[in-house]
Design goal:
This protein is of the alpha/beta class and 313 residues long. The radius of gyration is 20 Å and the shape is globular. One of its GO terms (cellular component) is cytosol. It catalyses: 17beta-estradiol + NADP(+) = estrone + NADPH + H(+); 17beta-estradiol + NAD(+) = estrone + NADH + H(+). Its EC number is 1.1.1.62.
Protein backbone atom coordinates (compact mmCIF):
# COMPACT_ATOMS: atom_id res chain seq x y z
CA UNK A 1 0.00 0.00 0.00
CA UNK A 2 1.30 3.45 -0.91
CA UNK A 3 2.27 5.55 2.04
CA UNK A 4 0.79 9.03 2.58
CA UNK A 5 3.42 11.54 1.48
CA UNK A 6 3.62 14.53 3.83
CA UNK A 7 5.76 17.63 3.31
CA UNK A 8 6.17 20.02 6.26
CA UNK A 9 7.81 23.45 6.22
CA UNK A 10 9.63 24.91 9.20
CA UNK A 11 10.97 21.73 10.83
CA UNK A 12 14.11 23.00 12.56
CA UNK A 13 12.27 23.15 15.90
CA UNK A 14 8.87 23.44 17.54
CA UNK A 15 5.65 22.21 16.00
CA UNK A 16 7.20 21.32 12.65
CA UNK A 17 9.91 19.16 14.20
CA UNK A 18 7.50 17.38 16.55
CA UNK A 19 4.92 16.77 13.81
CA UNK A 20 7.55 15.31 11.49
CA UNK A 21 8.67 12.93 14.25
CA UNK A 22 5.11 12.01 15.20
CA UNK A 23 4.21 11.02 11.66
CA UNK A 24 7.49 9.30 10.81
CA UNK A 25 7.30 7.17 13.98
CA UNK A 26 3.58 6.38 13.69
CA UNK A 27 2.99 2.67 14.44
CA UNK A 28 1.00 2.30 11.23
CA UNK A 29 4.12 3.10 9.20
CA UNK A 30 1.76 4.71 6.74
CA UNK A 31 3.56 8.06 6.33
CA UNK A 32 6.56 9.20 4.34
CA UNK A 33 7.62 12.55 5.76
CA UNK A 34 9.66 15.25 4.07
CA UNK A 35 10.76 17.62 6.81
CA UNK A 36 11.98 20.84 5.26
CA UNK A 37 14.26 23.45 6.77
CA UNK A 38 15.51 26.80 5.57
CA UNK A 39 19.04 25.85 6.64
CA UNK A 40 19.99 22.18 6.62
CA UNK A 41 22.75 22.90 9.13
CA UNK A 42 19.93 23.03 11.71
CA UNK A 43 18.76 19.45 11.06
CA UNK A 44 20.85 17.82 13.82
CA UNK A 45 18.20 17.92 16.59
CA UNK A 46 15.60 16.43 14.23
CA UNK A 47 17.78 13.43 13.38
CA UNK A 48 18.82 12.92 17.00
CA UNK A 49 15.17 12.82 18.04
CA UNK A 50 14.31 10.54 15.10
CA UNK A 51 16.93 8.02 16.24
CA UNK A 52 15.73 8.15 19.84
CA UNK A 53 12.14 7.57 18.75
CA UNK A 54 13.05 4.71 16.46
CA UNK A 55 11.72 6.17 13.23
CA UNK A 56 11.87 3.36 10.62
CA UNK A 57 14.37 3.70 7.77
CA UNK A 58 12.90 5.61 4.86
CA UNK A 59 10.11 7.19 6.91
CA UNK A 60 11.82 10.59 7.16
CA UNK A 61 13.86 12.74 4.81
CA UNK A 62 15.03 16.32 5.09
CA UNK A 63 14.99 18.88 2.30
CA UNK A 64 16.17 22.44 2.07
CA UNK A 65 13.23 24.79 1.53
CA UNK A 66 13.16 28.53 2.12
CA UNK A 67 9.61 29.82 1.77
CA UNK A 68 11.01 33.25 0.90
CA UNK A 69 12.44 31.88 -2.36
CA UNK A 70 10.16 30.43 -5.04
CA UNK A 71 13.10 28.61 -6.66
CA UNK A 72 13.90 26.93 -3.34
CA UNK A 73 10.28 25.80 -2.97
CA UNK A 74 10.26 24.43 -6.53
CA UNK A 75 13.56 22.60 -5.97
CA UNK A 76 12.20 20.93 -2.84
CA UNK A 77 9.08 19.83 -4.71
CA UNK A 78 11.26 18.30 -7.44
CA UNK A 79 13.18 16.24 -4.86
CA UNK A 80 10.06 14.41 -3.64
CA UNK A 81 10.81 11.03 -5.14
CA UNK A 82 7.19 9.83 -5.09
CA UNK A 83 6.30 12.61 -7.52
CA UNK A 84 3.40 13.79 -5.38
CA UNK A 85 2.58 15.33 -2.00
CA UNK A 86 -0.62 14.07 -0.41
CA UNK A 87 -0.51 16.35 2.65
CA UNK A 88 1.14 19.76 2.67
CA UNK A 89 1.76 21.36 6.08
CA UNK A 90 2.51 25.08 5.90
CA UNK A 91 4.16 25.65 9.25
CA UNK A 92 7.07 28.03 8.66
CA UNK A 93 6.49 31.29 10.46
CA UNK A 94 8.09 34.26 12.15
CA UNK A 95 7.00 36.60 14.95
CA UNK A 96 7.61 40.27 15.65
CA UNK A 97 7.11 41.81 19.07
CA UNK A 98 7.10 45.41 20.26
CA UNK A 99 5.62 48.86 19.59
CA UNK A 100 4.70 49.28 15.94
CA UNK A 101 6.61 52.55 15.62
CA UNK A 102 9.81 50.82 16.78
CA UNK A 103 9.87 48.21 13.97
CA UNK A 104 12.22 48.68 11.06
CA UNK A 105 10.88 48.31 7.53
CA UNK A 106 13.14 45.28 7.12
CA UNK A 107 11.70 43.51 10.16
CA UNK A 108 8.12 44.17 9.03
CA UNK A 109 8.89 43.00 5.51
CA UNK A 110 10.59 39.85 6.77
CA UNK A 111 7.56 38.75 8.83
CA UNK A 112 5.12 39.42 5.99
CA UNK A 113 7.41 37.69 3.50
CA UNK A 114 7.67 34.50 5.57
CA UNK A 115 4.18 34.32 7.06
CA UNK A 116 2.07 35.54 4.13
CA UNK A 117 4.01 35.57 0.86
CA UNK A 118 5.92 32.43 1.91
CA UNK A 119 2.69 30.53 2.49
CA UNK A 120 1.38 31.73 -0.88
CA UNK A 121 4.57 30.59 -2.65
CA UNK A 122 4.33 27.16 -1.05
CA UNK A 123 0.68 26.75 -1.97
CA UNK A 124 1.32 27.91 -5.54
CA UNK A 125 3.97 25.21 -5.88
CA UNK A 126 1.93 22.28 -4.57
CA UNK A 127 -1.75 23.03 -5.17
CA UNK A 128 -1.79 22.59 -8.97
CA UNK A 129 -0.76 18.93 -8.75
CA UNK A 130 -3.28 18.26 -5.97
CA UNK A 131 -6.00 19.79 -8.13
CA UNK A 132 -4.92 17.73 -11.15
CA UNK A 133 -4.99 14.54 -9.07
CA UNK A 134 -8.22 15.69 -7.39
CA UNK A 135 -6.81 14.73 -4.02
CA UNK A 136 -4.92 16.47 -1.27
CA UNK A 137 -4.88 17.96 2.21
CA UNK A 138 -3.40 21.29 3.24
CA UNK A 139 -2.82 21.97 6.93
CA UNK A 140 -1.75 25.46 7.95
CA UNK A 141 -0.43 26.44 11.36
CA UNK A 142 -2.74 29.21 12.50
CA UNK A 143 -2.73 31.26 15.67
CA UNK A 144 -5.05 32.99 18.06
CA UNK A 145 -3.21 36.04 16.70
CA UNK A 146 -5.06 35.47 13.44
CA UNK A 147 -8.43 35.48 15.18
CA UNK A 148 -7.99 38.50 17.45
CA UNK A 149 -5.70 41.48 17.74
CA UNK A 150 -3.01 41.21 20.44
CA UNK A 151 -1.16 44.21 21.88
CA UNK A 152 2.44 44.67 20.70
CA UNK A 153 1.88 42.01 18.02
CA UNK A 154 0.38 44.26 15.35
CA UNK A 155 2.45 43.06 12.38
CA UNK A 156 2.38 39.40 13.45
CA UNK A 157 -1.41 39.57 13.85
CA UNK A 158 -1.74 41.31 10.49
CA UNK A 159 0.13 38.42 8.88
CA UNK A 160 -1.97 35.79 10.65
CA UNK A 161 -5.24 37.57 9.86
CA UNK A 162 -4.14 37.44 6.22
CA UNK A 163 -3.58 33.68 6.50
CA UNK A 164 -7.12 33.27 7.82
CA UNK A 165 -8.52 35.00 4.74
CA UNK A 166 -6.23 33.10 2.41
CA UNK A 167 -7.19 29.69 3.80
CA UNK A 168 -10.89 30.44 4.12
CA UNK A 169 -11.01 31.58 0.49
CA UNK A 170 -9.27 28.39 -0.66
CA UNK A 171 -11.49 26.23 1.54
CA UNK A 172 -14.54 27.54 -0.31
CA UNK A 173 -12.99 26.93 -3.73
CA UNK A 174 -11.15 23.62 -3.50
CA UNK A 175 -13.64 20.88 -2.41
CA UNK A 176 -14.76 20.15 -6.00
CA UNK A 177 -11.10 19.28 -6.69
CA UNK A 178 -10.98 16.87 -3.74
CA UNK A 179 -8.60 19.20 -1.89
CA UNK A 180 -9.29 20.32 1.69
CA UNK A 181 -7.68 23.16 3.65
CA UNK A 182 -7.58 23.22 7.45
CA UNK A 183 -6.17 25.74 9.90
CA UNK A 184 -4.76 24.46 13.18
CA UNK A 185 -5.39 27.39 15.53
CA UNK A 186 -2.77 27.39 18.27
CA UNK A 187 -2.47 29.28 21.51
CA UNK A 188 0.85 29.53 23.38
CA UNK A 189 3.05 26.48 22.77
CA UNK A 190 6.31 25.57 24.51
CA UNK A 191 8.68 25.96 21.59
CA UNK A 192 11.60 28.19 20.64
CA UNK A 193 9.09 30.65 19.12
CA UNK A 194 9.65 33.28 21.81
CA UNK A 195 13.42 33.08 21.49
CA UNK A 196 13.17 33.44 17.72
CA UNK A 197 10.88 36.47 17.87
CA UNK A 198 12.14 39.45 15.99
CA UNK A 199 11.66 42.34 18.34
CA UNK A 200 12.97 45.55 19.66
CA UNK A 201 16.15 46.19 21.52
CA UNK A 202 16.41 48.44 24.50
CA UNK A 203 18.07 51.08 22.35
CA UNK A 204 15.16 51.19 19.94
CA UNK A 205 12.67 51.20 22.80
CA UNK A 206 14.37 54.31 24.12
CA UNK A 207 12.83 56.07 21.15
CA UNK A 208 9.32 55.15 22.29
CA UNK A 209 7.40 57.33 24.68
CA UNK A 210 7.54 56.52 28.38
CA UNK A 211 3.94 55.31 28.62
CA UNK A 212 4.41 52.89 25.73
CA UNK A 213 7.63 51.56 27.29
CA UNK A 214 5.75 51.03 30.55
CA UNK A 215 2.91 49.16 28.83
CA UNK A 216 5.38 47.04 26.89
CA UNK A 217 7.12 46.06 30.11
CA UNK A 218 3.76 45.03 31.57
CA UNK A 219 2.97 43.01 28.46
CA UNK A 220 6.30 41.19 28.63
CA UNK A 221 5.58 40.14 32.20
CA UNK A 222 2.09 39.01 31.18
CA UNK A 223 3.55 36.99 28.29
CA UNK A 224 6.09 35.27 30.52
CA UNK A 225 3.36 34.33 32.99
CA UNK A 226 1.12 32.92 30.25
CA UNK A 227 3.90 30.75 28.87
CA UNK A 228 4.71 29.49 32.37
CA UNK A 229 1.13 28.68 33.30
CA UNK A 230 -0.86 27.97 30.12
CA UNK A 231 1.47 26.98 27.28
CA UNK A 232 0.88 23.59 25.67
CA UNK A 233 3.51 20.99 24.89
CA UNK A 234 4.10 20.63 21.14
CA UNK A 235 3.29 16.91 21.34
CA UNK A 236 -0.23 17.83 22.42
CA UNK A 237 -0.60 20.19 19.48
CA UNK A 238 0.62 17.64 16.94
CA UNK A 239 -2.30 15.37 17.85
CA UNK A 240 -4.66 18.10 16.60
CA UNK A 241 -2.82 18.05 13.26
CA UNK A 242 -3.32 14.27 13.19
CA UNK A 243 -7.04 14.73 13.84
CA UNK A 244 -7.34 17.09 10.87
CA UNK A 245 -5.19 14.89 8.66
CA UNK A 246 -7.28 11.79 9.34
CA UNK A 247 -10.74 13.35 9.35
CA UNK A 248 -12.98 11.96 6.56
CA UNK A 249 -14.52 15.41 6.12
CA UNK A 250 -12.00 17.87 7.53
CA UNK A 251 -13.16 21.13 9.04
CA UNK A 252 -11.71 24.51 8.16
CA UNK A 253 -10.56 25.20 11.73
CA UNK A 254 -9.27 23.00 14.53
CA UNK A 255 -8.26 24.43 17.91
CA UNK A 256 -5.33 23.16 19.94
CA UNK A 257 -6.92 24.70 23.04
CA UNK A 258 -10.31 26.16 23.89
CA UNK A 259 -8.86 28.65 26.37
CA UNK A 260 -9.08 31.63 24.01
CA UNK A 261 -12.44 30.77 22.45
CA UNK A 262 -14.46 33.03 24.83
CA UNK A 263 -12.61 36.02 23.42
CA UNK A 264 -13.15 34.81 19.86
CA UNK A 265 -16.87 34.46 20.58
CA UNK A 266 -16.88 37.92 22.14
CA UNK A 267 -15.57 39.45 18.93
CA UNK A 268 -18.53 37.94 17.08
CA UNK A 269 -21.11 38.71 19.77
CA UNK A 270 -20.28 42.42 19.69
CA UNK A 271 -19.36 43.30 16.09
CA UNK A 272 -18.49 46.86 17.15
CA UNK A 273 -15.36 45.46 18.80
CA UNK A 274 -15.84 47.52 21.95
CA UNK A 275 -16.39 44.56 24.29
CA UNK A 276 -13.37 42.67 22.97
CA UNK A 277 -11.03 45.66 23.19
CA UNK A 278 -12.01 46.37 26.79
CA UNK A 279 -11.78 42.70 27.84
CA UNK A 280 -8.36 42.21 26.25
CA UNK A 281 -7.02 45.41 27.77
CA UNK A 282 -8.18 44.30 31.21
CA UNK A 283 -6.62 40.87 30.75
CA UNK A 284 -3.21 42.19 29.77
CA UNK A 285 -2.83 45.45 31.60
CA UNK A 286 -5.05 44.75 34.63
CA UNK A 287 -4.93 48.01 36.58
CA UNK A 288 -4.36 50.24 33.55
CA UNK A 289 -7.47 52.33 32.72
CA UNK A 290 -9.44 51.42 29.63
CA UNK A 291 -12.68 52.77 28.26
CA UNK A 292 -15.60 50.44 28.92
CA UNK A 293 -17.51 49.27 25.86
CA UNK A 294 -20.31 51.55 24.81
CA UNK A 295 -22.17 48.78 23.07
CA UNK A 296 -22.51 45.03 23.24
CA UNK A 297 -24.62 42.33 21.71
CA UNK A 298 -28.20 42.65 22.94
CA UNK A 299 -28.59 40.53 26.05
CA UNK A 300 -25.03 39.24 25.73
CA UNK A 301 -22.59 39.24 28.62
CA UNK A 302 -19.32 41.10 28.56
CA UNK A 303 -16.94 38.19 28.90
CA UNK A 304 -13.68 38.28 30.81
CA UNK A 305 -10.56 37.31 28.98
CA UNK A 306 -9.32 33.76 29.60
CA UNK A 307 -5.95 32.97 31.15
CA UNK A 308 -4.24 32.42 27.79
CA UNK A 309 -5.13 35.87 26.46
CA UNK A 310 -2.65 37.87 24.43
CA UNK A 311 0.02 35.18 24.05
CA UNK A 312 0.67 34.37 20.38
CA UNK A 313 1.79 30.97 19.18
Amino acid sequence: MDRTVVLITGCSSGIGLHLALRLASDPSRSFKVYATLRDLRAQGPLWEAARSRGCPPGSLETLQLDVRDADSVAAARARVTEGRVDVLVCNAGRGLLGPLEAHTAGAVGSVLDVNVAGTVRTLQAFLPDMKRRRSGRVLVTGSMGGLMGLPFNAVYCASKFAIEGLCESLAVLLPPFGVHVSLIECGPVRTAFLEKLEGVTGGVLDGADAETRHLFSRYQRHLEQIFREAAQDPEEVTEVFLEALRAPRPALRYFSTESFLPLAHLRLADPSGCSYVAAMHRAVFADEPAEEPTSAAPGGPVLRAPPAAAAPQ
